[in-house]
Amino acid sequence: MAHVCSAVPTEPKLAKGLFVQPHIFTGVTNASQIAREEIFGPVCCVIRWTDYEEVIADANDSEYGLAASVWTSNLQRAMDAVTRLEAGFVQVNQNLVVQPNLSYGGVKASGLGKEASLESMLEHFTHKKTIMINMA
After folding, report:
1. Around Cβ 111, how many Cβ atoms within 10 Å?
2. Does 61 reside within a domain?
3. Is 34 part of any domain?
4. Which pTM value belongs to this model?
5. Residue 103 · residue 114 · CB < 8 Å
6. What is the pLDDT of residues 70-108, one digit of tens each?
7. What is each CA distance from 20 to 11, 16, 40, 79, 124, in whole angstroms?
């Protein structure tokens, strides 16, 4: 089920299609097409889980690995998740905090983005993971 999260803005400069309404999709499983594809836009899929090992396996069961977010107050669980998640950019207790001085690019089929950087040329055969944690 899709939940629209806002209304289309009334400002004239946004009336010509420069705005896409955010959507949250619920009732999604890891096998759902919307959960299996890399969607760029204001879209969030909510998948309920109860087993930690299963959710890590499900998160890694994808041909993509651009970014991941982990939400927890348990630092040990956070560190375990960030080391096991197959994503090029992992954040804890925050999302979409991208800074120009950080390497940002994915792994697997999400690898485009960091390959042309000097850092990537120097570390071409390594798998780097950026981790940000906010425990406040």
Report:
1. 15
2. yes
3. yes
4. 0.75
5. yes
6. 999 999 999 999 999 999 889 999 987 777 667 677 888
7. 14, 11, 11, 34, 36
